[in-house]
Amino acid sequence: MSVTGKNRVVTTHKLMEMKQRGEKIAMLTAYDYTMASIIDEALGVDIVLVGDSAANIMAGHETTLPITLDQMIYHAQSVVRAVRNALVIVDLPFGSYQGNSKEALASAIRIMKESAADAVKLEGGEEVLDSVRRILSAGIPVMGHLGLMPQSINKYGTYTVRAKDEHEASKLLNDAQLLEHEGCFALLLEKIPATLGAQVSKKIAIPVIGIGAGGGVDGQVLVSHDMLGMNKNFSPRFLRRYANLKENMLEAFSNYIKDVKSGDFPNNNEEY
Ligand code: KIV
Questions:
Q1: What is the pTM of this model?
Q2: Mean pLDDT value of segment 40-62
Q3: Of 66, 69, 83, 161, which one's alpha carbon is 20 to 30 angstroms from that of 150?
Q4: Nearest to 122 by CA among 145, 99, 100, 154
Q5: 179 CA distance to ligand 1 centroid (A)?
Q6: Is 164 exposed, middle or buried (0-12, 13-18, 19+ CB in 10 A)?
Q7: 131-157: burial string, b at 16+ Cβ within 10 Å, e else
Q8: Is residue 1 part of a domain?
Q9: CATH number for the domain that contains residue 69
Q10: Would you say the CB of residue 46 lies under 6 angstroms from ligand 1?
Q11: Same domain, yes or no, for 221 and 256?
Q12: Looking at ligand 1, which atom is closest to the CA of residue 121?
């Protein structure tokens, strides 16, 4: 039970059972109450991720690095207030867990205490294992994140597909096994070859959720604003658009402007 007293329907245990049954897991991002309510109303969304992509989508930053722990907690609180069914996972932001495991635990505890989310996610394998271990030892479920790790963009210098060569692919496979062994309840794989995604999913027993990691993993995640077509400048190969909200919104805004300018809005039924 979360500290708000609500029992969410999806648990880490249920996700494991889904993998065992071969039932695919659907995950979407949310950063605010209204979007999270609509996502959760579409029953069948298993996980809502309060991603640090909020830095890009909500605040317009070029990378995910600037978002702070306080800002992530604010977004998480808004999402948690809305979600009744899905499991809510919150990203530990850049700088809140890489320093040492004590700092990582303190950050994870703040997220859990102040937002009442269900779990945290962090990027990295072997390098962050101490932090993962310490967070797990406090009873906080952890999702790992390997492949393209946007918090390391300054190291990579590019957002292109990761782990295409043998060396990086075998490190990723090893990291996935380490994270599973440590006790992570799930793993997110971002932008890697589909064959590697499928290989990881077969090798480890915990659910593997992909974004640009092919169809051989146990579930998929997309950034909601991208799949709704609100951001037409971002068109990676893995992105399927399910709506054209940007066009719908532009049309609505220009109709409103037209009506205000012409004096058509408000009419007699829209005034007191
Ligand atoms: O922050 C985020 O949105 C993510 C994506 C990979 C889903 O981690």
A1: 0.96
A2: 96
A3: 83
A4: 145
A5: 18
A6: exposed
A7: bbebbbeeebbbbbbbbbbbbbbeeee
A8: no
A9: 3.20.20.60
A10: no
A11: no
A12: 8
Residues 169, 97, single domain; the answer is yes
The answer to whether residues 86 and 188 belong to one domain is yes
pLDDT mean over 62-90: 98
Residues 186, 83 share a domain: yes
Cα separations in angstroms, 217 against 49, 94, 103, 209:
18, 26, 32, 6
Q: Does the pLDDT of residue 162 top 80, yes or no?
A: yes
Alpha-carbon span 183 to 206, nearest angstrom: 9
Q: Are residues 62 and 168 in the same domain?
A: yes
Confidence of residue 3 (pLDDT cuts 50, 70, 90): very low
Return the active site residues: 190
Q: Ligand 1 test: best mutation among 31, 190, 231, most atoms within 8 Å of CB? A: 190
My answer on whether 117 and 65 are in the same domain is: yes
CA dist., res. 268 & res. 99, Å (int): 62
Please check whether residue 3 lies inside any domain of the structure.
no
Asked, for residue 2, whether it belongs to a domain, the answer is no
Give me the domain span that covers residue 45. 12-241
What's the pLDDT band for 135 if we cut at 50, 70, 90? very high
Tokens 């952890």 -> residue? 142
- From the CA of 145, give the closest atom in ligand 1: 8
Task: Confirm whether 187 is domain-assigned.
Answer: yes
Number of domains making up the chain: 2
pLDDT-derived band at 5 (thresholds 50, 70, 90) equals very low
Same domain, 116 and 145: yes
